[in-house]
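Tokens in:
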């Protein structure tokens, strides 16, 4: 079933692999013009060729999310090329996982600047174009690590927590321009060989299974559907119930 994406321009950052690749396929299948963005040129070309071979309208831009100038320039180019931006999925991100005693300032800054600052700048530059066409939808991919933590994840957790605050702030600021802004907090989403997961991997989830990239794609399609413009400023946890599960050693 088409959800209203025919003729829409959808930007997906981090589209070269994992969740981003599945997002690109999902929106392309819904009839959108999909704009792929990633710093990995080879991965980007692979998914672009795959989608084009299937007859989809797809374009690709190589850019570095940690470079503010590149972000502004690419968004301006997209705006000039297509005349509009309807959906932005801020999916790209990275982490440095090491003891806080050893984490360098440079590593901290790189994670924060890529994940948090990059999300803000992409959103701002896309919103400048969205508001000229009556609005749009932004979805920021955060993480359940914004809500709960494992050891040695300080920079990643801080960046993803910041994305949640940024999301509701942007929702309020951009609402008058007809732009919704929401976040998704994925839990364990297996992007490798799903068949290699153990029964206990699935069993620990209240849902009875580990997540798949398609679970995130369906959530994004819901949040960016023009008919769902009453939903804004939220964070949607997609984790099979794990953040609600009390875990004790038996």
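Residues out:
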């Amino acid at each position: 079933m088409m959800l209203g994406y025919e003729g829409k321009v959808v930007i997906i950052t981090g589209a070269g692999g994992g969740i981003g690749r599945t997002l690109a396929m999902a929106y392309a299948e819904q009839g959108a013009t999909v704009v792929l963005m990633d710093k990995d040129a080879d991965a980007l070309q692979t998914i672009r060729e795959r989608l084009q071979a299937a007859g989809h309208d797809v374009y690709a831009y190589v850019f570095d999310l940690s470079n503010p100038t590149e972000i502004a320039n690419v968004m301006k180019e997209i705006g000039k090329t297509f005349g509009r931006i309807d959906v932005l999925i801020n999916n790209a991100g990275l982490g440095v996982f090491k003891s806080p005693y050893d984490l360098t300032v440079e590593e901290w800054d790189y994670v924060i600047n890529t994940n948090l600052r990059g999300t803000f700048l992409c959103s701002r530059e896309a919103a400048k174009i969205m508001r000229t066409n009556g609005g749009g939808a932004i979805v920021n991919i955060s993480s359940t690590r914004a809500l709960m933590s494992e050891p040695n994840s300080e920079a990643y957790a801080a960046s993803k927590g910041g994305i949640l605050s940024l999301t509701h702030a942007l929702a309020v600021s951009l609402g008058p321009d007809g732009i919704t802004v929401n976040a998704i907090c994925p839990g364990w989403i297996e992007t490798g060989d799903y068949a290699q997961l153990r029964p206990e991997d699935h069993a620990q989830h209240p849902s009875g299974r580990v997540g798949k990239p398609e679970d995130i794609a369906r959530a994004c399609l819901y949040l960016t559907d023009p008919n769902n413009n009453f939903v804004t400023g939220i964070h949607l946890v997609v984790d099979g119930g794990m953040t609600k599960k009390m875990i004790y050693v038996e």
